[in-house]
Prior knowledge:
By secondary structure, the chain is α+β, with helices and mostly antiparallel strands. The chain is built from seven helices and four strands, in the order ββααααααββα. It has helices at residues 31-45, 73-77, 95-101, 105-110, 127-140, 144-156, 183-186; strands at 2-7, 10-16, 162-163, 179-180. The strands form two sheets. A two-stranded antiparallel sheet has the order 1-2. A two-stranded antiparallel ribbon has the order 3-4. Strand 1 (2-7) and strand 2 (10-16) form a beta hairpin. Helix 1 packs parallel to helix 5 (127-140) and helix 1 (31-45) crosses helix 6.
Amino acid sequence: HALLVFHKGNIQLEHYLTGYSEKTQSPTASMHKTVLAILIGIAIDQGYIKDVDEKAFNYIKEWSDDNRNEITIKQMLQQSSGIDYPSFSLNPLTEWNQLMVGDHIEEVTLNQPHKKEPNSEFAYNGINPQALGILLQRATGQRYPTYLSDSLWKPLAGDDAFVILDSEKNRMPRMFCCLDATARDWL
Length: 187
């Protein structure tokens, strides 16, 4: 939707496709994963999380009584936790569709089984960042959108960004994707 070239402290080129402008909020898909990783670093700096080598189950108690209790925050950040990812399916009732468009994201995320040993395989998927976002909410005691806005976005960007929630009832953000912001703010 947009092309911005930034060089030597200034925007050198700014071009938008027809129908878009500097105020257009664009969906950015997996760029949200990087923002989430930055927020984990901020939470460590602020003392909410000890460090990246801390076990995730310290915040995700649902993982404390099985082999997921070996997973570290770092392994989740590196997409090497060994957590399973639901398989794609056209069936609207599957876990994959619940994760993508359903209204029980937290339940689907935290119920994923441990498939491989941590650090044995890089497996890019949406479960690790979604679980990290849940962990971040629990560690900080703040709703993810509030923490994102106050700790990172407002201090750096001109406009606020928006996360997509699973439902009005549950209000769980999709943290593996779905952070809408302007091109200038991403820059």
